[in-house]
Amino acid sequence: MPRFMVPESRVSELNDEHWMRHALGLAQRAWEQGEVPVGAVLVQGERVIGEGWNRPIGQHDPTAHAEMMALRQGGKVLENYRLLDTTLYVTLEPCVMCAGAMIHSRITRLVFGARDEKTGAAGSLLDVMRHPGMNHQVTIEHGVLASECAAMLSDFFRMRREQKRALRLASKTN
After folding, report:
1. What is the pLDDT of residues 103-154, one digit of tens each?
2. Disulfide-capable partner of 27 in 17, 39, 62, 69 (CB 3.0 to 4.6 Å)?
3. Could you name the active-site residues (predicted)?
4. 149 a known binding residue?
């Protein structure tokens, strides 16, 4: 292989990091809106066809997870509920609801950053996506920019705990 060529696996890895950084930017939007900072971007080829960030609190909608928002937008762009030949990048391992939606939409690949030991359905708590009984199998990559994804979530929840502590202290002094 000539010196100037980048191995295909490294190109894919760099591409995954690029799109995960995009998802992290979307997660920041969730944070700014007071939502748990999770972001998702749906890509077909090199084109973004859907993106989303957590909005269940602001939209009063328990299904308004980042992944669901990105999948809905992707369906509208493609004018199809089947999202064939797509990759969904998400900063946190999907829950059962989102994993089910990915299977039904027939995405090809899921790439996520941080694992979610409490509600993750792509291998941590459950493995819905690779269950042998499912009629569609999604290829899964995990750990892309995991430390950045996990740090954003940890920082957010630390800030929330500090806010609650400050409110408790303020109410005791009044």
Report:
1. 999 999 999 999 999 999 999 999 999 999 999 999 999 999 999 999 999 9
2. 39
3. 67
4. no
Over residues 153-167, the pLDDT tens digits come to 999 999 999 999 998
CA dihedral 151, 12, 127, 97 (to 10 degrees): 70
* Domain 16-171 belongs in CATH node 3.30.70.1350: no
pTM: 0.90
Contact call for residues 31 and 55 (beta carbons, < 8 A): no
Q: Which amino acid is at 152?
A: M
Place of tokens 């369906």: 75
Residue 67 known to be catalytic: yes
pLDDT at 1 over 50: no
Let me know: does 103 contact 129? Beta carbons within 8 Å. Answer: yes
Q: Which of 8, 35, 51, 67 is catalytic?
A: 67
Check if the beta carbon of residue 111 is closer than 8 Å to that of residue 92: no
